[in-house]
Inverse folding.
């Protein structure tokens, strides 16, 4: 990621052909969504799944838990690129797939917050 002089930050999507300019305002939802999408990709890669395989796994899990949601590789791609957010239910399904067991706090906020929560320093 690079910060331009115009107050925008360029965010590289999961697809290397696309780069988006987003506001650099602290807490910008677009930045958080792009970072969260990167963490979904990290989970998918750690599990050794393709986007299509992750979509199939999420669809199966959604059915198991009574959620009426279908996933395909396009939806997974949009999530990883930060173009589509995650619902709380979707986040819970994604972390169940994570072989490293990083949890929903890590998915939502990233490593530093998750570490602080584990140490009991975040309230």
């Amino acid at each position: 990621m690079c910060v331009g002089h115009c107050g925008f930050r360029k965010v590289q999507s999961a697809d290397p052909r696309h780069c988006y300019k987003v506001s650099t305002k602290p807490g910008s939802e677009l930045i958080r969504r792009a970072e969260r999408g990167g963490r979904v990709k990290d989970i998918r890669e750690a599990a050794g799944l393709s986007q299509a395989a992750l979509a199939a796994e999420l669809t199966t899990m959604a059915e198991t838990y009574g959620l009426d949601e279908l996933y395909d590789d396009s939806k997974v791609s949009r999530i990883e690129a930060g173009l589509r957010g995650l619902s709380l239910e979707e986040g819970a399904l994604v972390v169940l797939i994570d072989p490293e067991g990083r949890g929903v706090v890590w998915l939502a906020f990233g490593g530093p917050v998750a570490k602080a929560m584990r140490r009991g320093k975040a309230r």
